[in-house]
Structures are given as C-alpha cells and as structure tokens.
Design brief:
- This protein has 201 residues and is α+β, with helices and mostly antiparallel strands.
- It is 39% helix and 20% strand.
- Helix 4 runs antiparallel to helix 5.
- The protein is globular.
- The chain starts with 6 loop residues before the first strand and ends in an 8-residue tail after the last strand.
C-alpha cells in the first residue's frame, strides 16, 4: 500500500488488542451504541465474535491495532451452532429485558445476508479513535479487497453508520438492500462489491 500501512493476519494472541480497538471504534456507532448505550457489554460481544472468526486466517491488524478487520471467508460461518446457541443467554446477561429486541436485530442481519454467490463477508471493520482521520480503516479495507480480488471473489458488508456508505462506495461497493434498527430510527445499508480482479494489486 502506498500509505505504508503494515498489515498482518491476526492470531489468538491478538484477541485482546483487536477487541479493544473495535470496542473503542464502535462505542459511538449509531447502531451498536443503541444496543449498548452505556458502552458496557460491547467488548464482551466483540470478543465473542472475534474469537470465533479467528479460526479463519481472515482477521487482520494494521499498524499495531490502529485498525482491524474481521472477515468470514466463502463457505465459512460467522458463528458455530454451539456459539449461536449461547448467544441468547449471553445477551440476557448483557442487556437483560432488551435481549429479545437485540436478537431481532441479529435476525435482520441474517435475513438480508445473501446466501449466493459465494463471497467474503466483512463482519467488522474499525479504526481506534486515537488514529481516526488518517484513512487507516479504508486503507486496510483496500488492502483486504486486493487480496479478495486476487481470488476473483465478491465481498459483502452491512453499514451500521450511514456516514460510511460513501467511503465503501469509493472502493467499489454498491447498495444492495437495507434493514431497520428495531426501534425504526436507523436504516442500515447492505452493500455488495463484485470482484475487480487485481485492480488494487
């Protein structure tokens, strides 16, 4: 990358660092800030999701946790059946009476996610607040997309913050659909990107 960004595949040893970066990155997010309005509990959910994703070599760290991305590769699953079964009880402990509402949100993620064709799914992407404004998150995403393009594969993501939609569009994503936050006060876009071969390579 022309930015000189140092990007590497994460290992289990990176779980704490990635969790801290992505928790800080999403604390003020219009979707996840609504799920965890006090910020408490977001780190538990992210750690749960990141630990699961680390079984694939598609969790990435940039510049000593300045930014991180979590991808699920084609034919992969975001959570195992056992992890899915534990999600409800975990949410009961984190958000109490709002657990069913949050599970409704997760169902909306699932219902809008395309089954075909095979693709890479960007589960999480975030920049630590201390490094915002440098373009690191988009540089990391561009780096990841170059690798995905080299395989001739498309990519998919959900945008939980409408302010980010244009940033994704600049890297080739197009709006494919949408779903509402359960309270009806936020629309999240689903976005698809066809492979560009070696366009970023």
């Amino acid at each position: 990358m022309s930015t000189g960004l140092e990007v590497r595949v994460a290992t289990e040893d990176d779980l704490d660092g990635i969790t801290a970066t992505l928790t800080a990155a999403f604390e003020a997010d219009p979707l996840w800030g609504w799920v965890f309005p006090t910020g408490k509990g977001l780190d538990v959910l992210w750690r749960f999701c990141i630990r699961s994703a680390l079984r694939y070599p598609w969790v990435w760290v940039a510049d000593d946790y300045a930014a991180a991305s979590v991808w699920i590769p084609p034919a992969g699953v975001e959570l195992t059946q056992e992890e899915e079964a534990s999600l409800g009880p975990m949410l009961d402990g984190l958000v109490g009476s709002r657990a069913s509402e949050i599970l409704t949100l997760f169902e909306r993620f699932d219902h809008t996610h395309p089954d075909e064709p095979p693709h890479y799914y960007l589960s999480l992407l975030g920049t630590h607040p201390g490094h915002r404004g440098k373009g690191l998150g988009m540089a990391l995403l561009a780096d990841n997309l170059a690798r995905i393009d080299s395989e001739g594969m498309p990519a998919y993501l959900e945008s939980s913050n409408p302010e980010n939609d244009r940033r994704y569009e600049r890297l080739g994503f197009v709006r494919a659909g949408e779903f509402q936050r359960p309270d009806g006060k936020l629309i999240c876009s689903t976005m698809w990107r066809e492979s560009r071969g070696r366009a970023f390579g």
